[in-house]
Please model this.
Amino acid sequence: MTTATDVVNQVIAYMGGNQPPVTGSAPNFDNSPAGKAAAVLYAPCVQTVARKFGWDFARKTVTLVVTSNTPPYPWAFEYAYPPNGVEVWQIIPGSLPDRNNPIPTNWVVANNIVSGQQARVIQTNVTGAIAVYNNAPNENTWDSLFRETVVRLLASEMAMAIAGKPDSSQGLFESSSAFADLAESRDG
Model:
């Protein structure tokens, strides 16, 4: 079973410099320099790579929950953004008269006050809306190209955070971009 700690330790191996492996778990890891850097950099790095492409392994479909707000014009409905959503890719109606000929829908991601707190919302004219989105699945489900892209981007960030190694950081950043470009050509 792959964990965030495994990913961070792979990052440390890529960086070199005889850094000791982290022993703690995400999101805090441990008090080592690498653990402290990972606590700050890991989640944003994973979400950055997750938003780069519509990774098939991250696809989740869920019925949205209506907020108690009156939606702004021209929208008829306002839904809460999925709480574990990295990025919503598509909104579809709850029922389709012809599943082989779906009608495109218009929608926007916005923010509004929901239960006294500012929150991300989805506004649309679709009744009973269903979202297809990236739900940030755990490391054990990651596609191998996704993992390699995360590792290389995180290694670039951590190289600067831990040791101020701009040469290592630049090289790893460039290789993470190459893996991200390779992933563009993946099978869907």
Summary: The helical segments are 4-15, 33-52, 144-163, 166-184.
